[in-house]
Amino acid sequence: MNRINHLFQIKYPIVQAGMIWCSGWELASAVSNAGGLGLIGSGSMYPDVLKTQIQKCKEATDKPFGVNVPLLYPNIEAHIKTIIEQKVPIVFTSAGNPKTWTSILKAEGIKVVHVVSNVKFALKSAEAGVDAIVAEGFEAGGHNGREETTTLCLIPMVRKAIGIPLIAAGGIATGSAMAAMFCLGADGVQVGSKFVATFESSAHQNFKERIIHTPEGDTQLTLKELTPVRLIKNEFYVKIEAAYQAGASKEQLNELLGRGRAKKGMFEGDLIEGELEIGQVSGLIKEIVPAAQVVEEMVQEFEEVVGNKTAWI
After folding, report:
1. CA–CA separation, 260 vs 285, rounded Å?
2. Residue (of 192, 197, 194, 221) closest to 207 by Cα position
3. Cα-flanking dihedrals φ and ψ of residue 38, to 5°?
4. Structural domains of the chain, count
5. Of 34, 33, 35, 32, which Cα lies nearest the Cα of 12?
6. How far apart are the first and last CA of the chain?
7. What is the pLDDT along the chain (313 residues), one digit of tens a residue?
8. Which residues form the domain of 275?
9. Integer Cα distance of 98 and 70 in angstroms
10. Are 222 and 156 within one domain?
11. Same domain, 29 and 152
12. CATH code at position 108
């Protein structure tokens, strides 16, 4: 049996990324019901909102689901408390030190997965006792690694360094890409951008429409002085580039970014002044579909590519 299927007790080794402003209970439950692993993205939620989201997800699915928790979240203790009280079975952590919360969560019987962008932090995560690792390449949307290591290079390097289950992320939206990741040593895949452009995604309709009309090369990793993030090249992005050309300091870049840019763009649908986080693979996404269709088409294409070697999944 596939190690990710076994670890999470799911049908297919496909994880829906827990993306801020896009991954509410509707999307998470839809992916879990389709046989993958749905994740609620808690980074954009107040603790009471997260509690409600978890409860609604439980009502919508009897399958396993999880919560993604950015460890730099300002009220992290409240989120961890909510997750434990609500008996969430799986937690994906990111953007912080996995040693801080892994043992506490595992003591509660919770499976813990940490997201990394390089071998160094993959090793640290394994040492911290996580159950699996997501290795996310430079192609991915949202916050990203400073090293700019592509998924094609990152996965075999991390596979060589660790023995625990490995989930590949970054630029994956098709069954053929999933098959490629398995060939490189991954046990499963995490998919973000493709799930943003689904009916169940909590992203604003304007943002979904912008994604399916985003051509090749229309995203860029920027703001590395703050936290690297891949954005669609809209008017806000042009302002960032102008600031760089003018020699803006870290403080000036932070002031330009301000607060609530991601919410403005992805959740409220401001395509001009909002921060539009999406991956390079957006160039392949041409329609908004149900989340279950994404899972179904990925599995079907995967099986066609590997010649129906179903033992792989």
Report:
1. 26
2. 197
3. -85, 145
4. 2
5. 35
6. 7
7. 699 999 999 999 999 999 999 999 999 999 999 999 999 999 889 999 999 999 999 999 999 999 999 998 888 999 999 999 999 999 999 988 999 999 999 999 999 999 999 999 999 999 999 999 999 999 998 888 888 899 999 999 999 999 999 999 999 999 999 999 999 999 999 999 999 999 999 999 999 999 999 999 999 999 988 888 999 999 999 999 999 999 989 999 988 888 889 999 999 999 999 999 999 999 999 999 999 999 999 999 999 998 855 555 5
8. 215-281
9. 10
10. no
11. yes
12. 3.20.20.70
β-strand partners of 133? 114, 166
Q: Give the residue carrying structure tokens 């950015």.
A: 70
Would 165 be classed as within a structural domain? Answer: yes
Tokens of 71: 């460890």
Q: What residues are paired with 232 via a beta bridge? A: 219
Helix (H) or strand (E) holding 39: strand 38-41
- Do 38 and 51 lie in one domain? The reply is yes
Matching residue, tokens 């949202």: 142
41 and 182 fall within a common domain: yes
Residue indicated by tokens 């990925």:
298
Establish if 207 belongs to a structural domain.
no
